[in-house]
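Subject: Interface between my chains keeps coming out wrong

I've been trying for a while to get a sensible model of this assembly. When I model each chain on its own everything looks fine, but I need the whole thing in one frame so I can look at the contacts. Pasting all components below, labels as-is. Any help appreciated, I'm running out of ideas.
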Amino acid sequence: MQATTFAALGEPSRLQIVELLRTGPLSVGEISDALSIRQPQVSKHLRVLSGSGIVAVEPVARHRIYHLEPEVFEQINDWVDSFERLWEVRLDSLDTYLNSIRAKPTEDGSEADG
Amino acid sequence: MITQLFTKPKTLNFERTYEAPVETVWRAWTQPDMLRSWWGPKKTSIPECEIDLTLGGRIHVVMEATEEMGKYQGTRWPMTGTFTEIEENSRLSYDARSWTEGEEAGTTIHHTNTLTLSEANGTTTIKLEVSITQIGAKAKMAAFGMKWGYKQQFDKLKELLERRT
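Reply #2:
Try treating it as a single job with all components included. I did that and got this:
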């Protein structure tokens, strides 16, 4: 994961913009109106977001329309999935471990059941 | 509300049943020498493992990639947390963060963990709930929940683009 992705999403206004763009692609003006953030500020935030690959821009008629780029979010999802897999592996490994110590003397000298 | 999707933590739930008495399973989770025997996946070692089993006490475990991991050899993945609930042989909670050493800003994941244990006929069932509350320095987010949002939004984009032509 990119540190810049987290930094970009860590700013409350930018996170709001990302939330808003979830509903669909929008122009700077529409974002500005919806969030009551001044247009220059919105543009600044959008530059940061596009710099880290979170949004991209598409010219539609005379407007520049911003939309979310799925890749970053897929990466975050993959990352969470890997966290989940790690736990699956770990809990299976606990099973192997518990079987291996069964009927053997344990740490404190007591005898485990089995 | 969209906002709620972003503030809701991502929760993972696990359940396992082990052929062991609850006291043994509890010790496997709370005694460093036992925990380090199973905590790391294959090709990792646990060079550091400290557990201060008191409320507010620290749990600190470091996984390290062994030689078998090739180019990743020596990569360290620490987890540091604080116990928030301790009921011997029954319930254990801790808040923690995990990261890749040297890449903290880009890899930190905050999570709360609750383990419940119950024994029946000599077998122990554990339930583990892991909630990911935050990633990165301050991005409290459930961007995780965004997956299903893609299609809808790309359909809209397509529509817009088509309207142009």
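Reply #3:
Confirming on my end. Chain B is about 25% helix and 40% strand.
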